[in-house]
Amino acid sequence: MTDLESPMGLMFEEIDSQPSALGEITLRRRRIPALGDRDIFEVKLGDEFLMSSMFVDAEVALADLGIERAAGESLDVVVGGLGLGYTAEAALRHDRVNELLVVDALDTVINWHEQEKVPLGKLLNADPRCRYVLGSFFDFAVSNEGFDPQSPGRQFDAILLDIDHSPRALLNESNASFYTAESLGKMARFLKECGVFAMWSNDPPDEPFMDTLRELFVEVEARVVSFYNPFQNRESTNTVYLATRSGS
């Protein structure tokens, strides 16, 4: 019997914890009686919280806004960062999505989904449009081969990124070079004409980063996504950046 099953338990269960190149990564589940009788899944990297199933509005908005902006009826999409799967699941709700590649650098995170230790694993596994790709999104973005090991150089209708907390708050300092015009320009090679780059951020809109996007893309904007935070009893906000590759 786990703590979650025991009436005298702590309403907490550590499902898995594995070492990674970035530090110990942990998946856990808990319940907060005041917030209702539902499981809350959380991922931690070392002592830092990466994500929670309580706050997924902006992850869903990342997929919805990016795909809604993309043109065409048969879209090939990349999601950078699997996490708990909410961006991927939201993308698959769109009938226009033909294939979804979900890139993650941590085999542990992919294994959680393949082994269905997280709630959305079963849904993602059952959808033939979804394929997991193990590797660094940032390395793929600046490579000559791109994001699909089965089809080097392949271009996509949308690339959706949710890895770092923001262009300034990084999980790994080595990621900083991605947020430059040079690296973003290399990534843009893997977008079709009029393809969309969209990115989640925990911080308010960053004007210098938007200026960098404007050097490379058209129709650049930052959408602020609001959601209720029960821990703080107030509205919180995230940001979704949207940028379109030129059609000429």
Cα(first) to Cα(last) distance is 61 Å
Q: Mean of residue pLDDT?
A: 92
Percentage of β-strand residues: 25-35%
Widest beta sheet: strand line-up: 7-6-5-8-9-11-10
Report the C-alpha radius of gyration, rounded. Answer: 18 Å
Query: What portion of residues is helical?
Result: 10-25%
Structure description:
The protein has 248 residues and is of the alpha/beta class. Helix content is 23%, strand content 33%. The protein has a seven-stranded mixed sheet with strand order 7-6-5-8-9-11-10. Strands 1-2-3-4 form a four-stranded antiparallel sheet, with no helix packed on it. The protein is globular, with a radius of gyration of 18 Å. Mean pLDDT is 92; it is low at 1-9.
Summarize the structure.
The protein has 248 residues and is α/β, with parallel strands linked by helices.
Topology of helices and strands:
Elements: E1 12-18, E2 25-30, E3 40-45, E4 48-52, H1 57-69, E5 75-80, H2 86-92, E6 97-104, H3 107-114, H4 121-126, E7 130-134, H5 137-142, E8 156-161, H6 181-188, E9 191-201, H7 207-216, E10 218-229, E11 234-244
Parallel strand pairs: 5-6, 5-8, 6-7, 8-9
Antiparallel strand pairs: 1-2, 2-3, 3-4, 9-11, 10-11
List keywords for this structure.
248 residues; alpha/beta; 4-stranded antiparallel beta sheet; 7 helices; 23% helix; globular; disordered N terminus
